[in-house]
Design goal:
Strand 5 and strand 6 (154-160) form a beta hairpin. The protein is built from 36 helices and eleven strands. The chain is of the alpha+beta class and 848 residues long. The longest helix is centred in the middle third of the chain and has 40 residues, at 404-443. 42% of the residues are buried.
Amino acid sequence: MSDRARRVAEIVKSALERTREERITFLDQACAADSETRAEVDSFLQFEDEASYFIEQGALHVAAETIARDPATPFPQQIDGYQILSRIGVGGMGEVYLAHDTKLRRKVALKLVRAGMDSAEIVTRFRHEEQILASLNHPNIAQLYGAGVAAGDIPFFAMEHVAGTRIDEYCNAHALSTAARLELFRKVCAAVHYAHQRLVIHRDLKPSNILVTADGEPKLLDFGIAKLVESPDAFTQMQTLPGAMTPDYASPEQIRGDAVTTSSDIYSLGVLLYELLTGQRPYRLKTRSADEIARAITEQEPERPSTAIARGDGNSKFEIRNSKFPPGDLDNIVLMALRKESKRRYESAAAFSADIGRYLEGRPVSARKDTVTYRTTRFVQRNRLGVVAAVIVFLSLLGGIIATGWQARRATEQAKVAAQERDRARVEAAKAERINEFLQNVLGFSVVSWVSSNPKRKNVATIAEALDEASQRSDSELADQPEVLAAVKFSIAASYFGQGKPDRAEQLFRASLDLRRRVLGSEHQDTAISMTLLAEVLVHQGKFAEAETLSREAIAIFRRERARGNLAPKWFPLAHSLLGMALISSGDAEGGETALRQGIEASADLTGVLRSLVASLYGNLSVARGNQGDIDGAIAWLQKSIEEHRRVPGEPSIEMGIALGNLASFLIIKGEYGAAEPALQESLKIYVNAVGEKHQFTTWSIIYLADSYYLQGDYLRARAEIDRAIGIQQEVLQEGHIDFARSWTVLGKILTRTSDAKAAETYLRRALDLRARALKPGHWRVAETQGALGECLMSQNRYEEAESILLESHAGLSKALGANDPRTRDARQRLLALYEAWGKPESANGYR
């Protein structure tokens, strides 16, 4: 290097270590009598936004490379089968030429080790880049065409020549909108995710390594410092050295010299997106010294992109706040990618892109704003001495104004609260990290490797197998963290319930509730949430009394939380819905209706998919009306429920299937069988698509279908459907489940009409026993089964036995549903038939 180049480099280095204001005075002194040197120094400094290059290579190296780029410097005219056209780039270890492939008649970018730089380490790096490019074949990654060795044993490789513009310059030149920039960026994410899937970490993502072609396709370049994950090669196992990255786009772990993962590329993508949206980088710097950049990346929280745009310091030509998209979500997406802790960023480039896709579609995003507690804790951890000093100064000033005793007491209280907040923040962070780690392990159940949680190393594992394994392991792995264990058990229980395993779900919901009561207390909102979902399971299992108790307790807690403004909107109406169904199912239809109407009132502000809860409340209210003998009112509420369900976005929900089934059941009671069957078939289709045929819910519609065929006199089809329902129940329900009473009652009626009264009596008595034990006295379902049993006894000429049970059935139905309900009229018809068959016309006349 010449003395002049060395002097230029030293001046540039000194200038970069000064503020903008200090530079002018310094340069006037350093270059006072040398205008040529001043002009050359200024030419470097005008690219201050790219100053990271100086930090990366060192100022002396930059000056040397500048000289090397002199167009007067000769370059080879021919390398192997490639005719050299021009030199298009010079790096630390290589040179890139635009060349013509004389065999395939196409332009290529030819990269070779620079003369004098062909040490063993440099050649190893060069071969490493060639190896990585050979493994990648993606439309948004520059493609490797071939490799060889030039004269003097200099290795080279030929790759796709990308005639394009840097991605940031392309966006600005074409004045791309927010949406267009995001769509372009998603293509970059796709290329990075493709590389990650092939175990390649780029480690140097920045605008100059992403060119956009004339037709708008981005191309990812320069894998010179990329890393192969899990490679045994010594070079790829090295940490990212400060000289082998661009600091402005490097992740905190790269700056610290820690081992890098794919999450490091996610961070660099976050910096790139920040720059594309705002025209500036995430951190506010004064001197741009290496130390300041490193400190900013590892400690400083980046400014929100919308705030940066509003301030107007960058080159952005658009305004996020005036976009049709909500700015907060886009801010949170970018800031999630830029989080200091790698585990808190997006888990993959694909997940990053997917969240942007959700944003563009106007759907909720997974990124969430950091909490004040989290940022405060981070600040305190970074500035312990400063915070302590500030507190001391504050207390000293306060002591001059307020009495010493009050001051001490108040300071103690504040310190206690602050300590509690910090402790809670640490607990929440540790809890979230532990839950995330455990559930990621569960999600990786099918991974066939030594890290898999699948003991059988099966590469195709069912959800049920993963849940069983997670359930078994949670107690031992999370025993020392009961709050985390409670959350994990809650999630697994919900999954079991969705899988149609209510007994297993009940066990885990109970365990979660017990843990939360012990750790969080009986008044905590999370405890009430466990109560609510346990109550839901208990309603489906016929354990109505306990479901009622839990629902009432949860409602009281939610009411207090709602008054404080701390409650998610769905929980209060959901608890009312479950209370209503528990009361209705046990026989208190009037009390259930009151609870459901309160739930409807509490759900007035629900929007989007949460409107399905409103629709379910309408459907449950219909059951309350029907159980009080108001069949037409029940149908009206069900039609309103189904209309609400159809407006909810997405696939039809299980709750819509329930509403359709209930509508059919009331139409059957009215004798409108033709209108009932399409509703039942649609209900069954929803159930099968959502949970599969072998599920408790599907049996409900199948039983209604069997009852409809029975009432129409089609006993063959009725028997086929009821056998189908019972077969599913025997697979998915525990012995003695209340739902067996439904199917056994219908089966008993069918057998009575098909001359198998003895078998019918067995099933009907079992059904009556189940209902009598589960339901309150006077419930119309008990009277329904009594009526079927009385008819069965009558068919066996056991008139005296039949009379007492039919009289009891009629009285129960009349009291519960009213004298004019179709089910009560059927009970009168059974008594009339009994007395006529028994030869007691006087008694029969009372029921004509």
